[in-house]
Amino acid sequence: MRNSYAVITGASSGIGEEFARRLCGSFRLILVARRRERLERLAEELNGQGGHCAVIAADLSEEEACFRLMEELRGKRISVFINNAGSGVCGSFLDTDLEGELGMIGVNVRAVHILTKLVLQKMRRQGGGRLLNVASSAGLLPAGPYMAAYYASKAYVVSLTRAAARELKGQGLPVYVGALCPGPVDTEFGDVAGVAFALRSITAQRCVDCALRGMRRGKTVIVPTVLIKLAATMGRLAPPSVSVRITEMQQKKKLGGQKTGQM
Ligand SMILES: NC(=O)c1ccc[n+]([C@@H]2O[C@H](COP(=O)([O-])OP(=O)(O)OC[C@H]3O[C@@H](n4cnc5c(N)ncnc54)[C@H](OP(=O)(O)O)[C@@H]3O)[C@@H](O)[C@H]2O)c1
Question: What is the pLDDT of residue 137?
């Protein structure tokens, strides 16, 4: 534990906060997100229980913030990196706010890409390490009408992770990379994205349980719950046009009263 760190992005709430609680007995933690007070409150609580937590407030949708974070990690052995920070934008593609979507792509895609590359390079130099990208079951489906950019962003994460994992295995490197693909999880995500889940959600605790088990087993794509595994398999096997129509129906349920732009 002395110089062995776990870094968790998006640790100020939800899945990231739960990862922090679970990993704090085994590693020194570096907690990253924009809301400093939330991070500091969590760090104080975990430090009070014998943990070693430091906090970095950063808006990872800004490229520079990702490079600054890597600078802060210089000289530290990163045993685990949870690339979890992310958000969703919901609504008709023609009506959603472009700035908001670009911010989401900044954190869901650009930051995940930059940090995946730089952290894996660091882990190769260290001679080991484990990196988990928190994607979504959305990333396993062909497309998500009414949450178009979010689904596309998570598909990017799954594809990038699968390819990187294959390369690491092929090169015999002792470095793990995986993608966590949950369905609905009960966090602040729905409030931020302005959606109500169409399927029953699981707790962040259960989600992180599955994630840690999957990481221990070296699974590249980790899908918590049988229902979501089934939905993802059906989504893959059905013709894309059918799968996209079904996803559209589910997404419209999530939007509730929101305008879908349908005439
Ligand atoms: N909840 C679900 O149903 C669900 C399902 C599948 C996948 N996921 C994925 O799980 C991950 C965690 O989400 P969650 O469900 O735990 O939601 P959450 O409670 O809203 O947590 C999101 C975290 O990401 C951080 N974050 C967002 N934008 C950021 C930015 N620009 N820079 C730095 N940190 C940022 C937030 O912190 P600050 O606001 O303090 O910056 C927060 O800590 C996301 O990648 C999400 O796409 C969630």
Answer: 96
* 4-255 CATH, one of 3.40.50.720, 3.30.497.10, 3.90.226.10, 1.25.40.340: 3.40.50.720
Question: 10-residue block means of pLDDT along the chain (263 residues)?
Answer: 88 98 97 98 97 98 98 97 96 96 98 98 98 97 96 98 98 98 93 76 96 98 94 90 91 68 37
**Per-residue DSSP letter, 185:** B
Q: Is the CB of 224 under 6 A from ligand 1?
A: no
Q: Which residues contact 47 (CB under 8 A, 6 or more apart)?
A: 53
What pLDDT score was predicted for residue 197?
A: 73
Atom of ligand 1 nearest to the CA of 191: 20
Q: Is the CB of 83 under 6 A from ligand 1?
A: no
Per DSSP, the three-state class of 40 is: helix
Half-sphere exposure of residue 104, counting CA atoms within 13 Å on the CB side? 22
Atom of ligand 1 nearest to the CA of 186: 1
Residues classed as catalytic: 150
**Are the C-beta atoms of residues 138 and 154 closer than 8 Å to each other?**
yes
| Residue 12 Cβ contacting ligand 1 at under 6 Å | yes
**Model pLDDT, residue 258:** 59
Decide: 66 in ligand 1 pocket, CB within 6 A.
no
